[in-house]
Structures are given as structure tokens and as C-alpha cells.
Amino acid sequence: MTSKKKRSLPQRPTLLSSTRPQVPTRAGSTSNPSSRSTRTLIRQYHTLEKRLAQAKRAQDVSLVSDLRAQLSGLGGLKSYQQASLSGQSAERGGDSSKVLMQWLEPYIRTSTSSGGAQKFRLLEVGALSPHNECSKSAAFDVTRIDLHSQHPSILTQDFMQRPLPSNGEDLSKDGFDVVSLSLVVNFVPDAHGRGEMLRRVGKFLRTTNTQSDPAIDADDEPLKREIISPFPCLFLVLPAPCVLNSRYLDEDRLQAMLESLGYALVDKKLAKKLVYYLWHLERRDSGKAFGKDEIRKGGARNNFAIAL
User: Fold this and answer.
1) Nearest 5°: phi and psi at 142?
2) d(CA 62, CA 67)
């Protein structure tokens, strides 16, 4: 009796874009989904994407094919994006950039009143619409990217493959003052990929606007320092359970990771479904490593993790 060998997938470097297959939308889907059905579709899509990434790592061709069929049955990426847009709709209060603008508005007013005429540059990763709150501000020059753009104002691009700025360390020409990762990091299917995404952000932020209270030493309680200007900064939004109920990540762990990457916390908001953070880049990446370590016990915990 001969054993049946499992056919292997060819080894290829994994891009972020490969985790989000582009599949045509189901015909006739024009009605606005309910809030509950929207959440269900998004949750199912994320679960299937996670299982697909695991199947690819295990090189299980049969399971990969089955999971892709299930994703197609949900309507594919476009249905997911439509659900995400529905969740961002004004009547549901889902535009996370409103929080970003509330936090930045006082600093924008100060900059304008002091004679600053140059616009701030914002890179919005995973942009779904060019009509959100940050797009309405005349103070920003917004660059929007997404893996599979659904609008001509959004560039189709994988952030992990975006060319790095080439104008030297100050990034004065090609760098950004703000990088927004709103519900993007949680879409990356593995812990190390999430960490690499966070590490990569700093390479796009221009540091010429870095300001903080000089009376306090750089190594003295960085999160308690007075931030004169938040620029350059990272706007990070995650589903609340990723931080508040994870087996491998909590706020202290996330804070330690971002500090090691050179950031200081400017503001945060913990809501029922989402957590929002504004991080000011003030120092170089220390290169410190963080593994996938259990920090909370309990069977009801989820397995979301970030590793550096």
C-alpha cells in the first residue's frame, strides 16, 4: 500500500497583497447592509484570511483552494471593502479619521497662526474613500493607497512594497508628517508581518518637525514628556479586542514596542469596539526584539500578536 503524497505549493516571498485576493463583486448587491450583517461579513472575512495564510505556510494546496472558494462565496475583497465603507458611513459614526483630526486640530491652528503656510503631508494606508474627515482639511496634502483601490483618487499599492523616500535622512521632500494605519495592522496575517509594518512606518516620516520639551532628558519617562508638536506621527487604530483581550498583547506591551521604535504617546482613546493611538516619532529605532510571548491567560483570550 503506497502513501499518497501531499502536493506542495512553490515557495515564494509573501507580499501583504497576496493575503487579500481580488474577486469580482456578486451581481446585484446594491442595498446597504445592516450593521450586524456588516460586522458578520468583516469577521468572517478576517477569519478566512487568517486560515488562508496558515494554509499557505503549511503548503496545503487543497485547503488553500477551499478557503479561496469560501472567500469568493462571501463576495471577495470588494464585498469586504463595501462592508468596511458601510461601517465608516457618517450615520454610523465610523470614520476613524475624525479622531485624528480632533487630536491634530489644535496643533494645526497653532502652526497656521504662527505663519506656517506649507501643508502637512499625510499617507493614508488602506484608504477606502477619498471623502473622509482628513480629506476635508485644507491643512493636509493626502496620499491614499490600498491593495486594491476602488477609487481613482486612491493608488493601488502594497505599503510593504512602496519605495522608500530617497531624499536623505531628513526626508524633507518625499517624507510624510503623518502616516495613518487605521484597521490595517490587524489585517496582516502574522505577528512578525505586523511588526515589520510598524517598523517600516518610521522610514517614511520626516523628522525635521520633531519637537518636544528640551527641559526633560530624552530617556526620562518619554511618555510623560510634553509634546510641543506631534509631527511627525503615526495614527494607529486597532479593533479593541486586539489590545484589550489578547493573549499576547496589552497596552503596556504595545507601548513598549512603540517606544523601542522611537515613538512617544501623544494621545489615545479606548472605545467599545476600537482603540485609537497617536504616536510622535522622536528617536531612532532601537532595534529591540519582541517575541510572541503570553502575557494573559484564559481560554476566552484571542491570539492577536505583534512581534518585532
Assistant:
1) -100, 130
2) 9
List the single range of 2-11, 198-207, 293-302 with lowest mean pLDDT. Answer: 2-11
Q: What's the CA gap between 183 and 80, in Å, rounded? A: 13
Contacts of 105 (CB under 8 A, 6+ apart): none
d(CA 145, CA 125): 5
Helices and strands (DSSP H and E) totals, the chain: 7, 7
Mean predicted lDDT score pLDDT of the chain: 77
Cβ(262)–Cβ(219) below 8 Å: no
Model confidence at 216, pLDDT cuts 50, 70, 90, reads very low
Q: In this structure, what are the phi and psi dihedrals at residue 16, rounded to the nearest 5 degrees?
A: -60, -35
CB atoms within 10 A of CB 216: 13
User: What is Dmax (Cα atoms) for the chain?
Assistant: 83
Give residue 173's pLDDT.
Answer: 78
Residue with the three cell numbers 535622512: 169
SS3 223: helix
Q: Which amino acid does the sequence have at 167?
A: N
**Coil, strand or helix: which one is 300?**
coil
Give per-residue pLDDT as tens, 158-188.
999 999 887 555 577 789 999 999 999 998 9
Spatial strand order of the sheet with 274-281 comes to 155-156, 140-146, 120-125, 178-182, 233-239, 274-281, 263-270
Task: Report the chain's terminal Cα–Cα distance, integer Å.
Answer: 47
Task: Give me the count of residues in the chain.
Answer: 308
Residue 60 contacts by C-beta under 8 Å, 6 or more apart in sequence? 6
